Every structure is written in C-alpha cells, then in structure tokens.
Amino acid sequence: MKVSQKDFAIGLACLFSFLPTLFAPIMHVDEGVFISLSDYAQTGELYSKFTDLKPPLLFLLYHWLSLGLQGLWAFHVFQILGLCLAAWSLKRFLSYWISEEAAFMAAFIFALCSGRIDYGSGMPERVLMPFILVASYLSVLILQSTKLNTKYILAIGVGLLVGAASLIKQPGGLLGVGALCCLLMDRFRWRLVILSGAGVLISHILVFGLIGTSPELIWKEAYTINFGTYMHVQMDHRLQWMDRLVNLLGNYGIEIPALILGGLYGFKESVAFVCLKRQQLLKFLEGRFILLSLILICFSALAISLGGRFYSNYHIMSFFGLACLMALGLEFSEHRKPIFIVLLSLAIISNLVFHSLTFYRLATDQFKDWDSEVQALNDKILKLSDSSDSLWINHGFGYLYHSTRRRPAVKFMHFMHNLQYVDVCLLGDGQISGLRQNPNYEQSIRELKENKPKLIFWASRHKNSCTDRLKLEIFPEIQNLLESSYEKISEQSLGSLYRRRF
To answer: Global pTM?
Structure first.
C-alpha cells in the first residue's frame, strides 16, 4: 500500500487526535480493568477465575500490544497505528464509490475524530474499528478483482476481520454489513458470502483456542450473561435519562460535531440525488453507495442500541456510517472546499477542547485515574504486600492489579459485576442494597473468605465511578469480614485500605 502525501496527512491527523494518550499511563478506569484481565488472557484463567463481559480478543490484544510493559503507552502507540490503517482503508474504500478528493476529505475528518480522550482511548468500540474498515476495503478489492481465486482469498479475509471485530465487542460484527453489501454486488456473491462466513467461524475457533478456556464458558460469560442479565436490569430512570442527556450533548455535540453535521449534510444531498435519479438510481455507483451507507447507519444504530442505553463509548460505532454520509455530501456539493473547511475547523476545535482539558488535568493533578493519591496507594500496596499476595479493590481502580502485579482475590474484579453488571452511577441506593442477593455478590463474599487477600481497598471517591455510592453499611457481610479479620491502616478521600491481621 503506497503512502502518499494525503496518507501522511491522515496519519498526522490520527496522531494529533490521540496525542494525550502518550502522556499518561492509563486514560480510563475500563482500560485498567482490560489490562489487568489481559494478564490472564493465555493462562487458562480468563472467564474461569477472573471475568468480564467483553469477548476474548479484546484481552488478547491488550496482552500482546502492551508488550508486557507497565502502563499502556505501547498499547496506545499500536492503537494510533491501527487507526491510521483504518483511516487509510476508509479513504480507499470511499475512492471506489466517489472522487478521490471527497474520499480524502471524509477520511481526514474521520481521523481527527477517531480519538476521544476524555473517556479513554482503548475502548473496545475504537479497538475494533480498524478491523471493520480494512474488511470494507478488502470488499471493494473483491469487486475490482478479475481473478476468482483472489476474490475467494479476500472473502475469507473479510470474514476473519469481521469475526475479529465481534470478538472485541459483541455488536461490532454488525458493522461488517458494509463489507457484506459489497460482496452481494459481485456476480459470485453467494460463494463469497459463504467463504466470508467461514472466515468468521475460523476467527472464533482460533481466538477461543488461544484463550485456553472451554468455549462453553466463554460463551456463557461474554455473551449469555451480557445479553441475558445486563440488558434487563432496571436502572434509576432519573439517573438514566440524565446519563443519556449528558452523553448525547457531550458525545455528539462537543466531541464529533464535524461528523454529525457532515453526516446530516450528506443525508440531505443524498436525498436530492435520489429524487433526481430515482428511476435509474442503482445504475450509478453513487446510488449504490447511498443505499449501502443508509444500511450501515441502520446497523450502527442497532449496534449502539444493544448497549442497553446511550453509554459514553457506544457512539463510536456510528463513525463509519457518518463518514460515508459525509463523503456523499462532499461529493455532491457545489461548495465542497468551504464545507470541508467548516467541518475541519469543528474537528480541530473539538480536539483542542479535549486535549486542553486532558493536559490541564495532568498538570494540576486532577487526572482521576492516575493522580498523586492513586500513585501513593499504588506505592503503599507494593510496600505492604508481596508479589505472591492477593488483593481486592471493590470498584473503580482495577488498574492497580496490573500496576502492582498483585493477583485479584475474586472473580468479579469490578463491583458492578456484583450488581448485575450495571453502572453504579445509574442505580438508586435502594437498588444497590436490594441487589445483595445476586449470586455474583454471594460468590465474591465466599471467595474473599477463602482466598483471604492480604490487602483490601474500599474506594469511596465519587469521581472514580461513583464509588462513594458503595457505602460499607449497605454491605454488612463485607463490613463484618473487615471488622473481624482486618485492620484499617489508612483512610483518605480516595478510600480506606485494610490489612489482614493474620
């Protein structure tokens, strides 16, 4: 793949978008959980002794791409490279349907919007994006190829990549509909679809085999529980609507206004094109691409809805479809360059806002996931325990398992797992207390008594995943355990640290 000046510019845009990730070891609490669980990705203990709702490839990628180093710098570097590849693939994918100039403009805006820093860079929705966009690029190569064997090989590759996306985040494979629609436009469509389906199956077999845990257990933990339990928990409706409103304003209004406005403009221009060419719409490449883009938008909405609510990072799944609509708007517009300048300005301003906020927090010790208090706690854990000791942190600081190299004492490392896998911030106090009967909670209490962790840290700082909502008096079983077997050795705004007496 030849790298042109435009490709280089897209690469710089990706780097600019992700710049703050190179200045902090961890960007978000979820990254901390992922990197901590990745330490057990190939030991046969993932999903059996330590678990999370995410599919296995996410943890394998964290394990491989972090290179065994402290922090996530190496992972973030690989992620920047991955998003560069995604943006380059998007440009080439779009160039098949529309002019190269409009394709470049859309890919450049996509690159600038690809790294949201305030919520964390290494979220699975973002990690899977290169797989989907490269698969889509391969699908247009299939349309261009005249060799049947080449088409077959590329179709298997498309399936492998789409399967990999679904192994990073369960709904991620739905975005592969863009590649599937391209395959259906080929004269050998059904053979190609069957081969791509085989590729999806092969990717699952390979990844499940690498984990070293039974496929039944992986399916139960990462899929059945996710779509069976998590999706049906009743949350506090007032908090839920506040969460939706804040995320809608933040994600779509502040973070990606360029993609949103570009997508809306593209939709308007596409409607005009359809009205003009409606009798012969599908004879035009642009007409087919309009249909493909609308299908992709619908499947993106479905993937987002499977999150159960408008949660902070699910909107990333809309980027591909929005970029396609934006590209159509730029293609059809009579004022392409002025519109591009407006969208470019919005994307740059959005980046500057989030970058400034992140660097300000780093400079003023307000970076909640790795500020001086968290670092002091990390040092204290290292001082008061040995590498062979186990540790339990109730919620919000999963990264400390990885940074201290201490073994988690319970299977459910995040306390939200004990509350039917829902965000603590979205539950009322009565709901938190009522969920003590959850089997996960009972299992955690049993494991705490059996494993007897050397240290227990009970977090209580609100800005770290609303841990102040988890008051000890709500959980008498844990409170009794701490009073009978542990001594409190420190207490601060971050929380309380307990050490086992014997």
So the answer is: 0.91
